[in-house]
Amino acid sequence: MILDDHTLDGISEHELHEALQALKAERNAVFLAHYYQTPDIQELADFVGDSLALAQAADRTGADTILFCGVHFMAETAKILNPTRTVLLPDLEAGCSLADSAPADKFRAFLDAHPDHLVVSYINCSAAVKAMSDIICTSSNAVRVVNSLPKDRPVIFAPDKHLGAYVQRMTGRELVLWDGVCEVHVDISADKLKLLMGKHPDAKLVAHPECPQHILADADHVGSTASLLEFVQRDPAQTFIVATEAGILHRMREAVPHKTLIPAPAHADNTCACSECPYMKRNTVRKMYTALRDRWPAIELPEDVRQGAERSLRRMLELG
Ligand code: 13P
Ligand code: SF4
Question: How many C-beta atoms lie closer than 10 Å to residue 168's C-beta?
Fold first, then answer.
């Protein structure tokens, strides 16, 4: 039975979850979720991962429908790799400040001003920008991707200038950086973080490379969400300060319930005293249900853009 909006208003969380599972089976759907989604969404997902693992999971699925619980560029990536499948995003407004920082027309003009450059784009960008890029990277393989490029060619790195600066330091390679930032990671307060580290001298700091250098400089480990999760499990320390979006803490707490995990504080005096991505948090379980029910919002792309974006994405996937 398909539930209308009025019925959805009156049912319990448990009933909503049951209805969602029934609809999922009917639609032969798979639920993919990023670590920044709320715990209830992560628990409902068939697969939870970082951007690279999610792209790989999207690439190998046999489901008719992919319900992508993440942000727009992630669902778009799934569609680029799966043109014949239906790809749904629970909330079309789930965007990304990094992807928004690089509109296609301005990016084209930037590339025209830098002829002969190879173009590496972070996966947090639009399909149109991917189509203009030579190769895509994520935070887990950016260093490897840049190291794979011929040494005699100048390289543009877009759109995250902090990840780009980090890759520059790690590879020793000069990169031309696009001036984009993740509004969530640049909002982590260095002053409050110093105070917190003072209070917890034994804590190790783990940080996402979208953070500015003044945060990364103090970090014991820098990596993608999956890499941070893996580090807190592997490292013998008992207390960690986690400098990334707070959604990752759900999986971390499950993985190391005996360890103390403290979110790095944001500038804003928000209620969670942590960093939350307002775009990631637009998705809800109810919106998962209505997206699957209405087969909307569905991701659609012009075929020429999709093919161009697939070329640069596949180059990354082929690197492994
Ligand atoms: P990863 O999960 O690939 O580290 O990406 C973080 C992020 O900001 C996604 O938007
Ligand atoms: Fe974009 Fe930052 Fe949100 Fe990730 S956390 S989706 S990079 S705004």
Answer: 18
Please report the pLDDT score of residue 320 as a whole number. Answer: 79
Going from the Cα of 83 to the center of ligand 2, the distance in angstroms, rounded, reads 25
Strand ordering across the sheet containing 239-243: 221-222, 204-207, 239-243, 260-263
Neighbours of 199 (CB within 10 A): 10
Backbone angles phi, psi at 277, to 5 degrees: -85, 115
Task: Indicate which ligand has the atom closest to the C-alpha of 228.
Answer: 1
pLDDT in tens, 6-49: 999 999 999 999 999 999 999 999 999 999 999 999 999 999 99
Q: Which domains does the chain have, with CATH numbers?
A: 5-93+280-301 (3.40.50.10800), 98-182+306-318 (3.40.50.10800), 188-263 (3.40.50.10800)
DSSP lists the bridge partners of residue 47 as 32
50 lines ligand 2 (CB under 6 A): no
